[in-house]
Amino acid sequence: MKRLDLRFLPFLLGLTLLVVGTRINAQEPSQVDQETADRIEACMGCHSKEAGAGPAVDLEKLRQSPHASFDCQTCHDAITELPHTPQMTAKKPQCATCHADEVEAFRKSTHSREDYVKGDHPSCVFCHGGGAPHAITAGSKWTREQKVQVCTQCHSQTERMERYHVDPEAVTSYLESFHGKALLRFGNYDTAICTDCHSHHDVLAPMNPAAPTYPTNVAKTCGQEGCHPGSQANFALSGANHLRLKIKHDSLLAGVLWFFRLLIFGTIAFMAVSIILDLVQVVFRSQEPPRCGRPAGIFISLSYFSLIATIIIVTVRANGAGIAAWATLAFLVLAWIAYFFRRNRHVPVATQRLYPRMNLNLRLQHFLLLSSVTALVATGLPLRFAAAQISVQELNMIGGLDNSRLIHRIAAVGLIVVAIWHVLYLLARWRKFGGSIRSWRMLPNKKDLEDFNLVTKGYLGMTKEKPKFDHFTFRSKIDYLAEYWGVPVMVLSGLVLWFPMYFSTWMPEAAWPISFIAHGYEATLAFLAVVCWHLYNVLFNPNNFPFNTLWITGKLTREEMSREHPLELERLDAADMGDGGNGE
Q1: Cα angle at 110 between 106 and 114, to 5 degrees?
Q2: What is the 8-class DSSP label of residue 139?
Q3: pTM greater than 0.70 (yes/no)
């Protein structure tokens, strides 16, 4: 007897599994006995699409439904003979025959009210079969996304909803909420959907005292198992799911919203116009070319113009944002190429005297602030602008929504630490200088207004005189105040959003929605201010391009001091101060 060649064993095993799997897949999915199958087949003799002798039945969909094991007479019990009499066909199948409890609950719901236009209100067949009675699907088999789709297919129809005084923006407000974004954009299934708050068949109007969304019931609804245990009415009524609707009926929230919108528009418009005028002055109108060279300066200008165009396009939700963004990057790359191939080289840093500007304490603060803000932006803005595909891709890169939220909170702790650190630093300086407010040199003063006025006149061609900046310029102070105005807002609002159960026990109902509005808009403002103002002034300014190392080394060269802080340099030279000041 020949010995079995074991090398063929994996092949034989695989072939066996393939054959068995094919036979299993070929089996009829429904468990229909032969007698039932024969009766269905008899009916299909007239009711198939091919026969065309009666209303067509999609047998394939019926076989996939929970009713696959029924014969036709189970639902059409009035049909007893051929041909069908008008009395037989007049009697329609009743879902209540098998689903009495569900139908009774539906009859008491707001969905069972009288139609102003036929078909306005949902029915069993409409929700469970999309209007096709033989394509019924069981709600227990629906995904959570499908359940939301069943509700939104009606509630997003403006005219239909307005006929019954229902706000169609309920759908939009849910999609804008954390719950809507988490589920529909980022695939997080541990979040609330319509039926979790409004129930299924027994949906009641919010003003019905028995409704789970009635003011006296919402705390229990939000506090149900798996949601927000311990929820208070203040949090439950805060508008977490339908903030847009709440803002429409609350003048305080509407005022807060418009304040932040105007703040963002005014701040970014001022910054963008200032930078554009500066580029025109430095690159195109100045007789002396910028430090990076005029070709590089031109490409920097085009890159910045493209950046502003990108922001505007995204804001108005027009097409072309991707093209503008790629143009921003392309022009910046060309600027780098032009810079590295420029003809006129500057004096190497190693041969120049260096002036201390930022001590180690400040540089460490800046590094922690930079790291925290970068992580906050990377994990926060994708959730705020979840409709953008790039947001989904970014969060997927860092492990999904749960990882993003963890990183966001760790970065938030970093921001809190640097905020406290900086306050202690300012208090130490205040004490060191005998309690003088002048120790806080980032506070605006009269000279800043004079410098701003002179710069503005220069932009408008009204003077050729240039201001002599001291230790801090008005641009630095605007940058500083923009950041440290935002930090308290971000921290305080973020804590309310992080611990809503705690804060809702003693703060008013408006605290959460105000925090939500402030946190989102301030984050957007911070991001735009960094991109439009801070990065330009410290990195992409034609006289600093391509990279300013001050935040790393804490020092400036004599050339940089002469250009950016001439008044301070004159004072240092006059006093022959070799250390360049105290570095603060």
Answers
A1: 95
A2: G
A3: yes
